[in-house]
């Protein structure tokens, strides 16, 4: 095994991997000069290995030959990269736990999960170790940790950010994304990261997905609905969406996403797993064992429902229309939550976060409120394809009403 133990930044929350490259200085001038950013251990840095949360993946792959174009763009814009961050093992979870590197600490919900798989990036941002951080989102890995850690996080329109020289998971869902403590910094980073394919349109309607709020824990739903009442003055016309559009079923959407993601994830990693037989941590091992059993026929049978979800949501969220819903079904679970409680959390939350993944639509999580116990609770806003900039602008307008930590 190669020895990639390189000095990492001061790390009180266990956010950085032990094989992190040293800090990289950005350009002397540029729109992001003076800002620091961290990078999920999914993106390549030339001459350093990319580990994907797995020591065995790290040991069986050569150092990267190129740097991710997203990282390069940020450096060229003047931001300084401070290191690479911990993620769930091969990204196949959204709790934030990693059996090999340890779980990053959620400073805004001590003793509770940071959310994953972009856990280190979210934890570093919440702790103020960086101004913003790159993560990725296949099935919630930006949105869930943003909600749990009380920060802003954007999953962009699928395909708007270049994922060259980055590890894949399930390519039809994979999206780059990023976090920040401040909406303005999230927006500044977006000006560098997003491509030019935006679709601009004044906001004229916000749909409140009451069907999704009913799916969340009542305390979470009530705190987020109260936030919407307080922030109503900065929102366009609000309309309740009592029933799921076109009879869309959240549980069926979740199962559709699970099948397609599992099939694509096994296609990405299956050969390597068969050759290497890695020692996966708890939960990850079982997910890959299940993914191995998903056939092309299973995937093909799920595609029509994915297309239905995509068509329904894209038809409803035309330019100028947004939909709000809870990011996750609950506040962050305890680090030692029992298995049945975690499974219930996964099932309920996946039914919510799978929607924008299936539809390829942008979704931003904002730190809107707190649970009755005082833990962060995120509100999500889903927009139209190419409407990422509108979500970033709305986050800035809503920020004065957000929970302060």
Structure description:
There is one protein chain. With 405 residues, the chain is an alpha/beta fold. The protein has a single domain (10-246, 317-405), classed as Alpha-Beta Complex (Amidase signature (AS) enzymes), CATH 3.90.1300. It has helices at residues 55-59, 69-76, 119-126, 143-149, 183-193, 210-213, 218-230, 250-276, 284-292, 296-316, 339-359, 388-398; strands at residues 36-40, 80-85, 132-137, 152-155, 175-180, 205-209, 238-241, 321-326, 363-370, 376-382. A ten-stranded mixed β-sheet has the order 2-1-3-5-4-9-10-8-6-7, with helices on both faces. Helix 8 (250-276) packs across helix 10, helix 8 (250-276) packs across helix 11 (339-359) and helix 10 (296-316) crosses helix 11. The longest helix has 27 residues, at 250-276. It is globular. The relative contact order is 0.15.
Q: Can you count the beta strands?
A: 10
Please provide the ordered H/E string of secondary-structure elements.
EHHEHEHEEHEHHEHHHEHEEH
Cα gyration radius (Å): 19 Å
CATH homology group: Amidase signature (AS) domain
Query: Which percent range describes the beta-strand content?
Result: 5-15%
SS-based structural class? alpha/beta
Q: Which SSEs are present, and which pair or pack?
A:
Layout: E1 36-40, H1 55-59, H2 69-76, E2 80-85, H3 119-126, E3 132-137, H4 143-149, E4 152-155, E5 175-180, H5 183-193, E6 205-209, H6 210-213, H7 218-230, E7 238-241, H8 250-276, H9 284-292, H10 296-316, E8 321-326, H11 339-359, E9 363-370, E10 376-382, H12 388-398
Q: Which terms summarize this structure?
A:
single chain, 405 residues, alpha/beta, Amidase signature (AS) enzymes, ten-stranded mixed β-sheet, 10 strands, 36% helix, globular
